[in-house]
Each structure stands twice: as structure tokens, then as C-alpha cells.
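Protein modeling request. Please complete all fields; requests missing the sequence field cannot be processed.
Requester role: graduate student
Desired output: 3D structure, C-alpha cell encoding
Chains: 1
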Amino acid sequence: MGGEQSTAANLEQWYILRGDMKYGPYEYRSMISMIQNAELQDYNYAWAPHLENWTLVGELPEFSKDRLARLIQTKDHLSGAFIERKFPRKDLKTPIYAHNDQSFFDGNTLSVSENGALVLLNDPLLYLGQKIMLHFRVSENNPVAFNVLCEIVRKNYSKQRLNVKSGLHYAVRFLQVPETGSTQLTKWSRGGGSKEETNGILKVHE
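Delivered output (206 residues):
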């Protein structure tokens, strides 16, 4: 059943909106590649003949993380379109603060690796390529506070919110990590229960 669905999706012709311009058609594999390379974001709109309206990519079941993970796990022929992570990743919720030289806001991590993280922040206006400082707060998961300079590499649409202002997840790549932070990140990402590289769906951080 899954193979039949993926084959149908692959043959489907997809279109995307960039501003007021429509681009396409693209095959399903090409859409996956654009998502992987951050050329297509969860908050961009896409359309295919089976859809009634233009829909946010983040709301389309064809591009949900669960579906993409199944393609990899079942070794679907489309799994070759995915870029494997270079660093193992760990689901981890721990509190953080962040600032961008103008504003200060709070949030929490959703997953971490030695080279990046997926975070939920109380600011929906940050942009790709922007540098921010993350402060990992002392918590049940974190015995020692530390700061990490990061670059935003992806914005993911999300229905999960910290408050009314926040509707985006941010994937960040670490640029400068102190020794204390590096040690803790290694413990988190390489400790028990870390995800294998082939479970990495999106190359949002490595």
C-alpha cells in the first residue's frame, strides 16, 4: 500500500508559489530535494491536481515528517532523494533563551545534535541566515548553562505554539560552541536513544 501511494505521489505534478509567481510542474522527488536544500519551506504554498486549494507545505500529508520517515524506513525507491545526517540527533526538550542584538525571547529545544538544533521560540520574525545567540538554561536535562552562537538555516511551519506570537520552528546551525557546551551536546546527541543518521528526514541541522 505504501509503495503504491509513494508511486502515485512521485508521478503527481506539483506546483509552488513564490510571491505571486507559480512555478512547476515538479515531481515528488524534486519537491523533497527542495525541502532538503531549504529552497522550499513549510510555510510556502504548494498545489497538485488532487488538491482543491493551494496549501501550506507543512500541512500536506505527502510531506509530513512521519511520511518521509516511512519512505526511508521501508527503503522506498524515493529514499535515495534524502540527504543523510552527518551527526546523530536526539529529541530533547530543554529551556533556552535567545537574542539577536535587538530582542530577547524565550523558548525550548525540540531536538539537538553536535552541530545544530531545532528550536521553538517566542518570535516568528527571524529570517534565514540571521545569527542569534542561544542560552541553554540550567534545567533537569542540563546541569550547566552555556551560550551558543547560531545561524538560522530553516523555518518550519508548526501548529505547536508557546504563545499567540509563535507558530514557527527554527532549525539552527551552531557556529561557536564553548567547550562546556560541546561536551553537553555530545552527551545529549550520542547518549542512549539517539537517532541513527538514516532517520534524519530533513537536513535542517547536521
